[in-house]
Amino acid sequence: MTLTDLVQQLLNAISLGGLYALVAIGYTQVYGIIRLINFAHGDLLMVGAYMALLLFASAHFPWLLSLFLALFITCMAAILMERVAYRPLRYAPRISLLITAIGVSFFLESGATVLFTGVPRSFLTMIPKMWRGQWKIGEITFPTLSFITIAVIVISLMFTFWVIFRTKTGLAMRAIARDFETTMLMGVDANRIISLTFALGSTLAAIGGILWAMRFPQIFPLMGVLPGLKAFIAAVIGGIGNVLGAALGGFLLGILEILIPAFWPELSGYRDAIAFFILIIILLWKPKGLLGSTVE
Amino acid sequence: MKKIWGFMLLLSVLMSGCKPKKIPGSEERKPGMESIKIGVILPMTGNVSGFGQQTWLGIQMAQKEKPKVLGQKVELLLCDEKSDKTESANCAQRLIQKDQVIAVLGSVPSSNTMAIAAVTEENKVPHVTPSSTDPLVTQGKRYVFRACFVDTFQGKVLARFAVENLKARSAALLTDVAQDYSAGLSRYFTQQFQKLGGTVTELKYQSMEQEFSAQLTQIRRLKPDVLVVTGYYPEIALIARQARDLGIQTPILAGDGAEDSRLVEIGGEAVEGLYFSTHFDEQMATTEIQFHYTKLFRETYNKPIDGLAALGIDAYLILLDAMERAGAQDREKIRDALDRTEKFQGVTGEITLIKGDAVKPAVVRKVEKGGFHYVTTIAPTLPSPQ
Description:
The complex is a heterodimer of chains A (about 300) and B (about 375).
Chain A: H1 3-34, H2 41-58, H3 63-86, H4 94-116, E1 121-122, E2 134-137, E3 140-143, H5 144-166, H6 168-178, H7 180-185, H8 190-215, E4 218-219, H9 225-238, H10 243-263, H11 271-285
Antiparallel strand pairs in A: 1-4, 2-3
Chain B: H1 2-17, E1 35-42, H2 49-65, E2 68-69, E3 72-80, H3 85-97, E4 103-106, H4 110-123, E5 127-129, E6 144-146, H5 151-164, E7 170-176, H6 180-195, E8 199-205, H7 213-222, E9 226-229, H8 233-245, E10 252-254, H9 261-267, E11 275-278, H10 288-301, H11 307-326, H12 331-339, E12 344-346, E13 349-351, E14 353-354, E15 357-358, E16 362-368, E17 371-378
Parallel strand pairs in B: 1-3, 1-4, 4-5, 5-6, 7-8, 7-9, 9-10, 10-11
Antiparallel strand pairs in B: 2-3, 11-16, 12-13, 14-15, 16-17
Helix pairs in contact in B: 2-11, 3-4, 5-6, 8-9, 11-12
């Protein structure tokens, strides 16, 4: 492991960690507000990526428009999902809600298999030519895409934190997370805030999905399962319910997942196991996650 | 309360892992008319679906050309094995027990074909795989045959091409440890490459993995003359992309697992200049049957034929030829006839089945401007596989 390799891997690790962070925020926010682990969240990655590709390659929309439309459609899908599957169960036992979430996840995966077939599709056409190159700095080669990924992630995270910590809507989100009934009594429209939470989380997931598909340019109906699971782990590591924790957990997980096999290449086949191992270690040490709140 | 919550979490994570099993899709049985039923098991969806799609094109075309045997219509029952070993075995069970097929064709990945072979062997059903090249597929089996060469030969082809054409003295080898095909091919390549005086460093990965930076960073430090990847096209495409992103400009060499248009669709400019060995190229055509089918394929599907489609045709034709020589719808007689297949004129060349395996030349192709181009043919003059 030379310094060159380390710098190279670090950039790689940060961009992967950022993707986990984007998706983890959606998990953690929904959990914070309605105490639901939304297992369908990972599948929104797939919805975002497929929508972008279909709009661009099949419907021949301009590139930028297809991207924004894909985000918008994914966002609408998430709001619909909440309205149809989760809202009727608002006061039902949590286990019903959880099982419904698994059902929605299977619905999205099977629906995508029926609509788009189980044959993987290439996402390469979505990556502009000028993003496919590499930058050379001395001995080190950086793929241009990594810089763009990191830039998009940073902008998205800054926007999200601004919404959550600097706007009235964000204040309402945090208030509902703290105490649902009291916040409603204060005159906050809880349903509207919950919809907005789903909208924000799903947009981040769609951005994550498109960036993920650009990084590994092959998309298929089950592409969201593993990244979704990893992002969930990231959210738990950071302390589920805590937005900053989710971002921290995402970066931590991505960096460890890249750097551990980089130092010990014989472990590269156990990349997924590493994620779970980290989860167990951190939960043993801090059962509420790194930034888990103490509020019950 | 907390404990219950934790338990539910665990439960839900476990549950999210088990996907509902779908009943394999196959065509409806038409009642009444007598027909000879042949089961076809191919990966039509999933990771290596390109293999199944391409082979199916070949088999369908061959059926259109030769729709009858023993005076009866041939009916093909396709079962999608979803690029999965368990599904492959399920398909075989279903086709043999429920549909009562007389023989089975398939599949492409060697691991999946071995799962099918366990079932066909047990039920004494003649089984021809078009393109599974691992030696273990037919080893010790009485009812399993193949239309292609074996990896003991393909390993030699790759080693010889690396040394003679690419002038390589050192090789970095990436093996997909989840696939018998890749593990076997890597072993035979290593043996031969070392015999020719080269050094090999082997690194491992697994099917469906997407991140290869750890292995590739190591390879970059080794500065090998050639990078050999013995897995299947989805991973080869990603490996090529990530290798170029890391600044590795080493030529890449692969086996017949690389042959699919998705290699280029996913790999893009990163797979330009990649070499791979395979079973057939239009340029190899010398006999009448070769010209006939290559032309027909181009006219029917508007693209050049490749190794997988050609082997799909050959597997179907070998089986029908054996049925004709057997003279009856008798599984045992068909097996014996398959075993006696000699100098059969197929699309991929002359086929003589020795202990279930064919001995044939291999061709090396190269990716150029997004298409596959003929480079050279390597004859099976090397010491024949045991």
